[in-house]
């Protein structure tokens, strides 16, 4: 497959088990398209308006594209709704921009910094987003401390 080839399809948003998580099934052969049976980094546009970077994940019954709660909210859609999907292989390096105050905190906690740097792009991104979404400075400070504790406790994501 050419790396810039866009794959389009429509699918129903499926709830994952009994939790607030959702995905759409990828209706094509990942091995044929991408040359792997494993995970494939992708860029997606849902309903021609909401962009997302993620992965085609092999769920055992086939590959799926996750729809975060934030994406579903932007789309105004939920479990059982149809969504139009345009996706292509993501060849760009995934970089999480770490704000200066968090860099300083990680530099002061070398073990936590090492563990953080070994995490996947998604987990690193989740931690930074969680801290940056704090509306009050006190909340941001509490979350920064909590992040260090969670990383040292082996928790990979929020």
From TrEMBL:
Entry superkingdom: Bacteria
| Xref: InterPro entries | AF2212/PG0164-like_sf, DUF1905
This one is known as Bacteriocin-protection, YdeI or OmpD-Associated
Show the taxonomic lineage. Bacteria, Pseudomonadati, Bacteroidota, Flavobacteriia, Flavobacteriales
